[in-house]
Each structure stands twice: as C-alpha cells, then as structure tokens.
Fold this protein.
Amino acid sequence: MALGQDPTWLAYMRALGFEEGEATANAEQSRGQVEDRLAFQRPIVAEQGEMARRGISAGFESRGVFRSGGHETALAEQRRGEQEQVGALELDAANDVAGITGSLAQEIVRLRRQQTERDMDISQRQALDAALAGLA
Amino acid sequence: MGTFGEASQKQNDNRRAALDALARSGSEGLNALGGAQMQVRATQNQALDQALGAAAQRGAPEGMQQRIASTISAPADRTVMNLQAAQGRLSADTARRTQNTGSYFDEASAAVPAVEADTARQIALAQWKAAKKNEDEEKGFSELAKWQQEGYAQGLAEAQRASEVQTVQQQLLDEIAGLRQHMPQPVQEARVAPSGHPLSRGLHFAEQEQDTFRNEGLTRATEQAAAGLGMPEHGGIEAVQRQLAGETVRPQVTHDDLRGAYADLGGDPLLAGGLFQPPTASEQLSDLMAEDFLGSYRETGARNVREAAQNQSATDRLGFGDAAVAKARSLGFESPQAMQAAQETPAYAEMKALADDVVLAGESLDDLRYLLSEFAASDPQTVALVLDEYRPYLVSESYIPDE
C-alpha cells in the first residue's frame, strides 16, 4: 500500500498540514502586528519631536536668545533623542520580524522532522502488515 | 516504487521544505533588519537636513553645524551598527540551523537501510514462526490421523469381536437374569414383619438361603453356558464370569475345539481332522467352515443355556437342587419330591396353622415343638419340616419373667 492510501498516514498529513498552516498564519499575524505598531508609532514620535522643538525654540525666542549656540544645541539634543527613539522602534521591529520568521521556520523544521519519522514508522508497519498478512 | 522508496522520496520533500523554510526565514529576517537600517538612515538624513537647514537660516556657524550633525547622527549610527550585528547573528544562526537540519535529514536517509533490515528481520522471524507453527500443526494432524486410523481399525476389530460373541453372551445374560427372577422370596415376607418380631430374626437366615439358591443356580448356568460355547475346558467358565461382570471377552475357539465340537455333534472325527487341520492348502475353506461350525456352536451353546436355565429354574422352584436334596434327607425324607409331597398333606396344613399361631403369639420354638408333639409319633418328617421352616422365626425358649 502506498503511503497516500494509508488512512493513518492521510490523517497524520491532514494534521500536519493544519499545524503548518496555523503556524504560518500565526506568524503572518504577528508580523502584521509589528508592522502596524511601527506604522502607528513612527508619526507619533515625529509629531512629538516637532512639538518639542517648537517648545524649545519658543523658550529661547522668549528669552531673546533665539539666535544662540544654546538654542542650536538644545534642538540638536532633542533630535538626537528622537533619533534614539526611532532607532529603538526600528531595531525592535526588525528583531521581532526576524524572530517571528525564525520561529516559523523552526516550527516547520520540527513538523517536517516529525513527518519524516512518522513516514518511516508507517512504512515499516505497512511492510510488516503486508508480509505478515499471509502468515496469520 | 517500494514502501521505503516512497518514504525516502517523502524524506527529500521534507528536507526541501524544512531548508526552504529556514532560508526564507533567514532572508526575511535579513530583509527586515536591512529595511530597518534604511528607515533609520532615511529618518536620520531627514532630521539632518531639517536641522542643518534651520541652523543655517539662523546663521549658525560652520563649527556649530558640524556639532549639530554629529549630535543627531550618533544614535542612528549606533542603531545601524546594532542592526548590522543582528544581521550577522541571524545569518550565523540560519546557517547553523540549516546545517543541523541537513545533518538530521542526512542521518534519517542513512537510517532507511537499517529500518529495511530490521523490517526484513521481523518478517523473517514471523515467517519462521509461522512455518514452525504450520509444521507443528501438520505433524499434529498427521499424528492425529494416524491415531484415528489406528483407533478406527482397533475399534472396528473390537466391534467385530464383540459382535461375534454378543448374541451368545446376551442369551446367557438373559437366561441368567431369568434365573434370578425365579429365586425364592421368603425375604419379602420377612421384611413386612414388625420390628422386634421373631420373623425379623429369620431374615438373615432367609437371605442366606436365597443366596445359596441363587449361587447354585448361577454356577450351574455358567457351567452350562461355558459348555454351550464349546469351551468347558478352555477358560470358558472364567470367560463367562468375566462376561457377567461386564467385561467384554472373546471366546478363543481353536481348531482343536472345532474338531472336538464336530465330533460331539456326531461328525466324523477323521473328516473333522481333515477339515480343521491347520495350516492346510485349503485354509481359507477351513476358515469358512470353521465360521459355520462356530455358528453351530453358538446355537448349541444357546440351546444348552436355555435348557440349563429351564432346568435350573424348575429345580429352584421345586427345591430340587443339591441343597434341597441335602435338606430333605436331613429332615428324614427320602428325596425332595417326598418332602414336596408332605407339604401338600392336611397334616402339614394343620401343623402350619398351629405354627402361625405360635409365631403371632410370640411364643418359642419349644412351644411349637410341644404343640406338634402329638404328630411326632405318626409323622415325624412333617413335624421336622415344619419346625425347620419356622425355626428362623421363633426364639428357642419363651422368656417368662418370674412372678
């Protein structure tokens, strides 16, 4: 009997296909959440940065030192902080995506290894059953 | 394609799917990290452009613009370095996982022959066990068939032997059973006597008498039956006794027996000797004639048994056996016939009436003897007969307590 004709093997393959499909769907969902989070946070950081810079400039302007080294330094520091925020967001998101795809790959490898072992077990059982059927 | 060939092909499919998943994961991870670097750089460039442009509008000196650029770029540079480091780790990790996965599938592929060998070993073992079982079963059936055949042949022979003697044996048993039915029955009368009655004391004596009659009759019938089978001197009595005990016995009729029987039946001894001299060229013919004579013997035996049974039955009924003769003479009669004649006389009936009264009154044998004393002078034999008949039912002396 071919493997494709064995009800046990077919049942196992159905379960395997379902698990692999579920794992892929979960990974896609997680990846989408990461991208959504990034797309949501990027403009917030940018907007908060802009607001902060306006506040800084207004402060220096009100004190009459709008054209001063202190004003430029304060703005540069604010942008550095904003760049750190942006970098952290991008780094975390990229690592999350890499982790999600890596986990999916590991799950697929695990399922395929399991399938390989199962195939051998079923093949051996089939061979034994076929050989022993005439001896009963 | 064999079963394991298909499994091997599936192994290759699984290997390809697993390695593809790892490669795709690595590629997507690297792409994500690379995309993040581009995004960080784009944000950095945008921030630099905005900051430096505004600073220039405000008339910031060159040195200040350089410090501004340095300040803004520092986080992005560190982030990009981290992302590049993550790419390196991901590449290494993907390569290691790919290698491990490939090694696993290499080992799984190499294990297929071992699984095939183990399968073949299990099949061979099962086949050997099945063959051994079949061999044992065949041997068992062969033995069983052999036993059945032997048993059938033996049983057939037993049945033939049994059927050869069954007719005569059954006749013997029937005749002897008939004899038993004609035994005297004093015990039946004695058993109805009340407990403690003198009659019950005669029960044991009566049973002994009955056994004597029966044993004599059976012995005589057995002797007659053995003679009827033509083997009075060849273990015939023993054979009949064993037959009566329920054992199947085949009479061993020899050629000598046949010759003797032929002569007994009036045949010419010389002719018998010629017919039944084993072994001869006409052995087959002799055997056939022997069968005929054996049949004649059976008929003769059966007839003798019937006559013996009739004689014995009559003898028992009349009390004319050896024991009856001995008893008649001990009582003074000349023969059992004379004793029987005495039992038909009025004097005997009168004496019995007196004896019955004595028994019913619970009196003793001495009392009966006293009552019969008036007959003693004229008919002492009948008096002795009555006293003998009633002795078992009476005590010797009456017990009269002193007043």
Notes: The helical segments of chain A are 7-62, 69-133.
